[in-house]
Each structure stands twice: as structure tokens, then as C-alpha cells.
Amino acid sequence: MAILVAGGAGYIGSHMVDRLIEKGRDVVVADNLSTGHRKAIHPKARFYQGDTRDRKFLDDLFEQETIEGVIHMDAFSLVGESMTNPLKYFDNNVVGMVTLLEAMQAHDVKYMVFSSTAATYGIPEKSPIQEDDHKAPINPYGESKLMMEHMIRWCDEAYGIKFVALRYFNAAGAKADGSIGEDHHPETHLIPIILQVAAGQRDKLQIFGNDYNTPDGTNVRDYVHVLDLADAHILALDYLLAGHDSQAFNLGSSTGFSNQQMLAAAREVTGQPIPAENAPRRGGDPDSLVADSSKAREILGWQPQYDDVHDIIRTAWAWKQSHPEGYQDR
Ligand code: UDP
């Protein structure tokens, strides 16, 4: 029995596959390589290149492989881009989920661990955020993920497809040996952009907004190491396979860092000056997003290994130094 990782060539997906294989699981990857990288796919995973909106592709895959459960991390995930191109998000994310669920139902695959997001909460009513808190997304990315969560819930009711939705806060870092890491084109995420400046590939960091309702005026986010996220998926899958009911869990470190604090931490880790300037707000950014992850710790037994943002940045810096241009396949 194999685990299907949809989106297994992506940043989080490639770390997910690496961890599953390290733990002796049989892994199948589906990815259309629109943003993922062939070189990021573990050589021991069986790779099927195709799109989760393509029912024929999925039917062929489910016929050739015996899939026990699906880890669904195949979605577009850029807040800013979703504000200017919302239909791209509803098409890839929501339509992809419809087709994947149809294929799972047709091939009697009953378990899904789904990559959801803190962006489902919108502007949080309290901090840290708990799973049952009010959800009112303020960008199409978060809206698409919330719709996807609702869709699986109804498929659980109707077809008994059990799921765990994992609402990630800010995924960051890389495998400590620097062999896989984050490589987006264009890059929009805070840590890789800061490290591009540190590596001399970009003049300066632009900090988007300095008048938010936070202690230093810049956005506060909760950074969680990508391998800790991967471990939570394995725990979630085993939780479902053990017969437990569908659930949602927040995954974060429970500590918020402002963009200014992240910059200061990166200066310490890299020893580089990293010039920065204040810039206008980016659309769709809530002031602060910090997780209460106690439910995942208590119910799944999740124990994140990285609890210091400097250590997280250090792993991203190791990747940057060993792969200054990323996978070099674009
Ligand atoms: N950010 C920034 N400058 C950049 C990129 C990001 O100030 O060049 C800010 C962004 O506005 C947000 C935080 O960094 O407050 C984290 O953004 P990122 O895109 O990394 O993740 P998101 O929170 O959108 O998932």
C-alpha cells in the first residue's frame, strides 16, 4: 500500500516525501511541475506527471497503484497573487479538489490529509488562534482552502472519506543537510527574499507595511519548520488509519515574529547587513497570525523539533548557500 503525495515536487511536498521515505513508507508522487521541481522528487518515490484537475490522469494512477491514503498539498498558495488573479486559485485549488475527491471515491480511497492554512481565519478575533475560531478569509487563497475543507467535510458525510485538515501557519526552513529547499519563481516569501539579499542577489528587502496593529507596526507571523510540518502529516495519516474521525489542526510554533524581528534574526544568522526599507502594504495581509497548536500536540502527539526561528533560518541559509540559484531547472 502506497501513500500518494499530490504536489510532492513542491517545497513542502518534497520535504513530505523525504520524511515518508525516511520512515520506510512506499510513496507515489503526482505533480504537474507547474511550480514544483523534478529534481526535488526523492528518487525512491514513483513519480506521475499530471494535473489533479485531469480525471483520466488520476484514474490511471489509482488503477496502477494501490493507494492507502492521499496527502493533498497540490495547490497555489500566494496571498498576493490570489488577490489579483482569484480565478487561478479557484480553478487549480477548488476544481482540483473536486476531481481528486471524485477519483478517490471512484477508487475507494478513504483517507486524506489536506494542507490547509492560517489564511482560512482571515483577521483573527483573538490570538493565538484556535481551530474553532471564526473563519472569514480576506484573500482568495484562504477562501479557496476553506472551500476545500468544506468540500471534504461533505464527502466525509456522503462517502465516508475521512480527513485531517492541517492549517499551516508560515512554513519555513529546509532539510538541514541543504539537499532540498525552497525555490519559487518568482520568489515572494519573506525568508527566501531576505536570504537573497544576504547572498547579494537582491539589493534590499522591502518590508510591506509598517503601520499594522502590532508592537513594531510590521506583520507578525508564526514560522514552523517544514520538516515539523511533514511529521505532523505522518501522525495525521496514522491517526486516520487507526480509525479516528475527521479533524482540523493548527500547525505553528505558537510564537509570533514580526517582519522586523525576522530581519534582525536573519542578520544574526548570516552575519550580513541585509539592507531593508519600508514599502506599502501588500493586499490581503492580516496584522498578526499566531497559532495555538496545543490540539495537534495533545491529540496527534506532535512534537516539533524546531522551536527557535534562528535555527529555522539557519537551515534555509544552508540550502541557499549550497544551491544559490535553487534547482536551476527554470
Ligand atoms: N513580506 C515582506 N516583504 C517581502 C515578502 C514578504 O514584507 O518581500 C511580508 C509579508 O507582507 C508578510 C510576511 O512577510 O507580512 C510573510 O509573507 P510570506 O509571503 O512569506 O508568507 P504569507 O504570510 O503570505 O504566507
UniProtKB/TrEMBL annotation:
This is UDP-glucose 4-epimerase. Pathway: Carbohydrate metabolism; galactose metabolism. It catalyses: UDP-alpha-D-glucose = UDP-alpha-D-galactose. Belongs to the NAD(P)-dependent epimerase/dehydratase family. It comes from Loigolactobacillus bifermentans DSM 20003. The lineage of its organism: Bacteria, Bacillati, Bacillota, Bacilli, Lactobacillales. Its EC number is 5.1.3.2. One of its GO terms (biological process) is galactose catabolic process via UDP-galactose, Leloir pathway. Keywords: Carbohydrate metabolism, Galactose metabolism, Isomerase, NAD. Its cofactor is NAD(+). It is an enzyme of class 5 (isomerase). Residues 4-307 form the NAD(P)-binding domain. Coiled coil: none annotated. Homodimer. PANTHER family: UDP-ARABINOSE 4-EPIMERASE 1, UDP-GLUCOSE 4-EPIMERASE.
